[in-house]
Design a protein that fits this description.
heterodimer; A: about 180 residues; alpha+beta; 4-stranded antiparallel beta sheet; 3 helices; 6 strands; about 25% helix; B: mainly alpha; 15 helices; 2 strands
Chain lengths: ~180, ~300
């Protein structure tokens, strides 16, 4: 069924309005994926299953850095923090990780148990020694009192996993480290 | 000429009658109404995950149930579209790509109902259904072919191991669940701050079968999507018919292992839109595809993994 040229009016533009928007959004998604690491699975492109860059290939290591520069990893997150973290991994820019950092800064954190040695593992995942470093297991301990200031820096390391199917080796690369000062949190 | 009397089994006769009844039903339905109802159903069963859209969708359903003609109102679709737009804008980088497609379709229905003349309403649906099917499949194929991690088979192989949603499918193609389990445990060593792999590298205990399956999935998926998109570009009866057969094949085979049911549903809506007038039998098969997508949500993964 065609609209004859003589009957074109402003309503005819409705036919192409949404396709134009879709193309613009998709173009933006491709740009952000290429230059700002937006995952191809989100954001309005058509890149689902088009690449290995979903949250399965991305992860973070988050550290509280005290005044002496000692780093302790945060390993337990509340459900909200874990959700914010997963969202940030879709589009790993500073602003999104700042939201995660602020959510972390709303809680008190305490070490659980004794320090643990950081194990050195070989290609097969077997422990072959230690790195000499030992870290606490840091977990949330309630909401911080209002007005109480966060005293430490927060470091969020953003890592990416790649897999070589020919060698069956997975390799991880530190893509970026985001440092957040206490006053930002 | 005498006809040879053939006695078909009664179940086959009943099946043929039911199939013909379905074809007749789909032909009798008004295109705009049918697509509206199927889209409203999608609003309820595959909604945008936000309280605003849940409430808006529930109210829309209530309104439709007490006043069915509401589904022909542009305002009805405008409210749904606006709620969906708000959700997508607020969460734009966390929203799956197929939700954008759903958003666009809601706006198309809104614009469709702004036009009073039924031929124009059908025109807007037909033009946009064809555009978006071409766009979805050609853009998807382009992004796949442009991606080194896709072309090498890395994506599918890694996800067969690392994504637990594929463990049951992997088992069906002969990859024991202990393989992805072992791989996921190995990958956890990367994520743990208490372990440091040498050179940040680990060997994953994969299998040749997974490698082969990944390569087959990689090229099957990309080729099928490219073919569907290209066939729909020509707007010829023969190529459209081929495109519909391939699209139905895509829907029936993809959304069993890949639990992105909303995507399958919206593709089926668009396919039905294009097929309804010219290919009534194919249109009836799209209706069966909707039922299949619903059944794909059965907990078959748990059943397979439990055996």
């Amino acid at each position: 069924m065609r609209i004859s040229p003589g009957s074109y009016d402003w309503r005819s533009a409705l036919v192409i309005c949404i396709p134009v928007v879709a193309l613009l959004v998709a173009g933006r998604q491709v740009y952000l994926s290429r230059y700002h690491d937006l995952t191809t699975w989100k954001g309005g492109g058509m890149g689902m299953f088009a690449g290995a860059d979903l949250w399965l290939n991305r992860y973070t290591k988050i550290f509280i850095v005290d005044s002496s520069g000692q780093r302790q990893p945060i390993s337990d997150f509340t459900a909200d923090q874990a959700d914010l973290l997963r969202r940030a991994l879709n589009y790993p820019i500073r602003q999104n990780f700042l939201i995660v950092a602020r959510a972390i800064g709303k809680h008190d954190w305490i070490p659980r148990g004794e320090r643990r040695q950081v194990s050195l593992v070989d290609f097969n995942g077997k422990k072959i020694g230690t790195t000499g470093e030992s870290l606490y297991w840091i977990a949330p301990f309630g909401i911080r009192a209002p007005g109480e200031k966060w005293k430490w820096k927060l470091e969020i390391e953003y890592w990416k996993v790649s897999y070589n199917p020919l060698t069956r080796r997975a390799h991880t690369t530190l893509a970026e480290t985001f440092v957040f000062k206490p006053e930002e949190l | 000429m005498s006809e040879v009397a053939r006695e078909w089994p009664s179940w086959l006769n009943r099946t043929k009658s039911a199939a013909q009844a379905l074809i007749d039903f789909v032909q009798r339905c008004d295109l705009v109404d049918l697509i509206g109802v199927l889209t409203l159903f999608m609003v309820l069963i595959f909604p945008f995950p936000h309280w605003l859209f849940y409430i808006t969708g529930d109210l829309a359903l209530l309104l439709f149930l007490v006043y069915p003609r509401a589904i022909r109102s542009a305002l009805f679709w405008f409210v749904l579209s606006l709620a969906a737009t708000f959700v997508v804008i607020v969460d734009w980088h966390a929203v799956d790509n197929h939700k954008y497609l759903f958003l666009y379709w809601l706006w198309i229905l809104c614009f469709c109902h702004l036009l009073a003349e039924p031929p124009r309403q059908r025109h807007i649906l037909l033009v946009n259904a064809r555009f978006f099917l071409c766009f979805v499949f050609l853009a998807s194929a382009a992004q796949k072919f442009a991606s080194p991690t896709y072309r090498s088979g890395e994506m599918f192989e890694y996800y067969l191991y690392a994504d637990s949603r594929f463990t049951a499918f992997a088992k069906l193609i002969g990859i024991d669940p202990s393989v992805p389990d072992a791989v996921q445990k190995r990958i956890a060593l990367f994520r743990s701050p208490y372990s440091k792999p040498i050179d940040n590298e680990l060997e994953l205990p994969g299998t040749d079968r997974a490698r082969v399956a990944a390569l087959i999935l990689t090229w099957w998926d990309a080729a099928l999507q490219l073919l569907i998109g290209m066939m729909l570009l020509f707007r010829l009866r023969a190529t459209d018919q081929a495109a519909h057969v391939l699209l139905l094949l895509f829907i029936f085979t993809t959304y069993l292992p890949a639990p992105v049911f909303g995507f399958g549903w919206i593709l089926a809506i668009m396919g039905l839109t294009l097929a309804k007038q010219n290919f009534p039998k194919i249109a009836a098969v799209y209706m069966i595809a909707f039922v299949a997508i619903i059944f794909y949500q059965l907990p078959w993964r748990e059943w397979v993994l439990a055996t």
